[in-house]
Amino acid sequence: MSVNYPNGKQYIPNAAANTKIANKKKNESYSNRGMTLEEDLNITNEYYREKKIAVVHKKPTPVQIVQVDYPMRSAAVIKEAYFKQASTTDYNGVYKGKYIDFEAKETQNSSSFPLKNFHEHQIRHMEEVLLQGGICFVILRFTKEEQVYLLEAKNLLQFWDRMKTGGRKSITKEEIEQLGYYIPLGFQARIDYIRIIDTLYQLS
Amino acid sequence: MSVNYPNGKQYIPNAAANTKIANKKKNESYSNRGMTLEEDLNITNEYYREKKIAVVHKKPTPVQIVQVDYPMRSAAVIKEAYFKQASTTDYNGVYKGKYIDFEAKETQNSSSFPLKNFHEHQIRHMEEVLLQGGICFVILRFTKEEQVYLLEAKNLLQFWDRMKTGGRKSITKEEIEQLGYYIPLGFQARIDYIRIIDTLYQLS
Hints:
33% helix; homodimer; 6-stranded mixed beta sheet
């Protein structure tokens, strides 16, 4: 059974995460310090949904359930389960009728983005989505610099192929600056990727 | 915390489920007896993916993780978790660039389909998807009769409204026959919903 813990991070249940976000917002005047990319994207997607701009959700973490208890008069309790490797990307949804699909990753590196952040399954999924005419990309964050870029899946696939044919195992910062689209940190749509999609696909 | 066990069914891990499907296929000459709607749809979606017809996945079951153990030299074990109510539908993906989104439900009833099979959250999600120009529907199975129908979300929403304004809490079989699209059980694309989508939206 293929199991792993997706990002090596401590799991924060939703309620706690939300409180954390609320507190952060209050204490740090909406700065991004300490917020994960996932938290920023959740806020962005919630904003898109509320404003009827787009409907995008993060998929639940895939879990292989092994044992479930059914106590009398209370909810079923999962007593043994394992994290599974995702077979798709984490985010998908609809924008103006079009299918959009992306993965979001961050790195502590400053000079390059390691490709080990992606799995073979996810790369295959991106290829399938592109073939089906979907809009597919990755959102890459350089955590230390707090810089976020959108890179189209077609470019990521080229770098993946370069690695597979013996080339470097990362994308250089220069390559990302050249081919990707910088997303400045916003206020409500914190990572306003839809604006980039609009420009790229002339949807607005 | 809102928790529930999605369909009141015993959980079958993937590996076991696949074996079960394989055995069923062998022993019952591809008849549908005993196969769940989910199993049929997984086979259908796998076929669509292999043939590059569409890319549709079932979302993982949402789970609220409470406690995780990290044993030395082995995979993280989830020791306490609960089933959460889904905030979206179970299936989504891309077909010819368009976003498609659906929920699949079955009933033991013969004369009507109870609306309690759907949750308020899912209904809101369907409204949002339609507003964004996505293709949204439900797949309804009458288990005893082994009859499967595709009903567009716009129709489901009308029946939901009827219930909310004091009307009946189910859709009659006649209404489903009249407004829905019967999907005959197929061989490889067992529940060939894409064919209906093609007809409805002139995508082919």
